[in-house]
Amino acid sequence: MGRAARQRGVAAVEFALCGIIFFMIVFGIIELARAMYICNTLQEVTRRAARFAANTDFSNPTAMQQVRERAIFRESPGLLMLADPVSDEHIRIDYLSIPASATVPVAFTGGLPASPEQNRENCMADPNGAQCIRLVRVRICMPESGDCDAVPYKTLVSFIPIPFGLPQSTTVVHAESLGLPPRLPPG
User: Fold this and answer.
1) End-to-end CA distance of the chain
2) Looking at CB atoms within 10 Å, which of 6, 51, 79, 129 has the fewest?
3) Domain spans of the chain?
């Protein structure tokens, strides 16, 4: 048997071995770039949601759903582009008060004021009261979690597991109008 006959399949085997390594590196670079994109985009999503929520009526569920949708660059419920599994359901909006006795802002636990008008009255009466919304906090969390559990990263190619949670990407802003139209000065 000649040397050429023995070498016939070697090129295919070498290409297969080198091809596997090459494509693993390419897919690894793509996943790393996508992970960095998602981390940066989630910060922008929380910033947008906080800005919208600070000026939206918190007592209107439809308006709050629109805040979540607009924050993920959509006009309807769904996933954030190129960031599966993050969707509008992962955006958690909390309203915070700043009690005089506390050293850090406190999330509302007993329920929000009934309306933006009620919040304005509460804040005028006692700016450091427990029923005065002063700050809006937005985080990226698992929808059904009591605490703010991290959303697990989901790779594009399922056979390459990358076990890490996406950052919470918290943004806190001052509550602005909360959807309340400005009052005109008397007459």
Assistant:
1) 108
2) 6
3) 8-174
